[in-house]
Amino acid sequence: MAVDFRGHPMFPSTGFNAPTRFEADIYDCEVWGRVPADIEGNFYRMQCDFQYRPPENEWPTGFNGDGHVSRFHFRDGNVNFRARYVKTARLLAERAAHRRLYGVYRNHYTDDPGVKNIDRSAANTHMYWHGGKLLTLKEDALPWAIDPHTLETEGVWDFHGKYKATSMSAHPKIDAQTGEMIAYGYQAKGDLTDDIASYIIGKDGRVAHEVWFKAPYVGIMHDIAITKKYILFPVVARTTSDERLKKGEPMWEWNGDLPTMVGVLPRDGSARDVRWFRGPARNTLHFLNAVDLPDGRIVMDLPTSSGERDPSQIRRWTFDMRSRTKDTFDEEVISTANGVLARMDDRYLGCDYRYCYVGNRDPSLPYDQARGGNMGGRVTNQYLRVDVRNPKGEPGKYFAGPVQSLQECAFVPRKGSRGEGDGYLMGIASNYESLTSDLVIVDAQRLEEGAIATVKLPFRLRSGTHVNWYPANELPPFRAG
Ligand SMILES: [Fe+2]
């Protein structure tokens, strides 16, 4: 049967987030403004796309689509664009069958029986360059490596056979000071298991340290945070059960009766060194940064909300490692910025830092519904630069425009710079009027001045999941393939 998305509740027949389903190359993209010469490298972004029609009760987040990577290569003010699907075993099996074979999000009971022994990764959430591999990630499976320039798929990667967990989260952390990647898997012995596996992977791409321990309950563990001394593993109140899966539902449901639990593991520690801290139920997927204070406490900053539908805020959780008896963490609100995706200058990850860059929705800014359609309540209309050392100060602001919505941004260091925040913000702006996508580049120290350059694409990219930037001097020599 031919593909037909009409009538599916996730995809209105027209609209910005209908599946795109194509691969593309654009040599020398159209650029409005001037791309600074001190930007040289690759900007990557991931979207969940849909080659085939998913079940009608699919998780409406769209997080069960096929991994689709865009690469913008920057050099001498010129930009080359490429977009490719990750050619996972899952996608190829579905192409062979000409239909969707995998069921709803992370529920193997709803899969076609024929895919039981086929790797189920959609490789659709994030991508990290480390140890000579560009890894595309989804948290219920192992990474899939792709070529950093051509985006051709290389295959499943298990770190020379030394990564034993069955899954790796899409949010490992790269420590810029050591070059190490701190990675982890949860449900690490298969669906619904309460095992967590923590890995430190050297900059050579080889496993250097492995720790296995148990979660207090099986909740979502989408992200972690690191300091110079510790790894923090938050378990939040979105949980699951075999009964739920047998009913044919997507994996997760919110349960506000559960506490937030944060496991703190010394980076060189073992399972017996893990300490769990408890807090009220919080709805979050992503964390921003964590820092060791001189007095022995740890602070962790994150966008989070108190319930499933509450607006997000940037909050700070404090863990007192000096006390052997205190098993709760304290919380304070740093900023009311309501975006759920906050980024920073990743060179300062785990270190004392100052700036948080977050997409925010300010309802007082103009939205032109006559031109942009009925999307006004959902637009992310500005990037904010929040000073976490002076959060009461006025944040820097970049307003995207009256029919635009911003996706996650990456911080791009100015070539040769060292100081925190000396660089640019780069992110996709969805234009709801023209149904096209732009890549906007803003000076991270002068957001109010607007976009320095806008890379114009003659088509739309769906709302994406995550983005990352890697400078040319960390990548192999560019080849278009
Ligand atoms: Fe994420």
Based on DSSP secondary structure assignment, what is the total number of beta strands? 32
Question: Major sheet, described briefly?
Answer: 6 strands, antiparallel
**Number of DSSP helical runs:** 3
Structural class: mainly beta
Assembly annotation? single chain
Outline the low-pLDDT stretches: none
Envelope shape: globular
Terminal CA distance reads 34 Å
Helix content: under 10%
Strand fraction equals 35-45%
Backbone CA Rg: 21 Å
Please explain how this structure is put together.
- With 481 residues, the chain is mainly beta.
- 4% of the residues lie in helices and 38% in strands.
- It is built from 3 helices and 32 strands.
- The strands form 7 sheets. Strands 14, 15, 16, 17, 18 and 19 form a 6-stranded antiparallel β-sheet that branches. It has a 5-stranded antiparallel β-sheet with strand order 1-5-4-3-32, with no helix packed on it. Strands 2-31-30-29-28 form a 5-stranded antiparallel β-sheet, with no helix packed on it.
- The longest helix is centred in the N-terminal third of the chain and has 9 residues, at 89-97.
- The chain is globular, with a radius of gyration of 21 Å.
- The protein starts with 23 loop residues before the first strand and ends in a 10-residue tail after the last strand.
- The model has no long low-confidence stretch (mean pLDDT 96).
- The structure holds fe (ii) ion.
- Fe (ii) ion (FE2) binds next to loops.
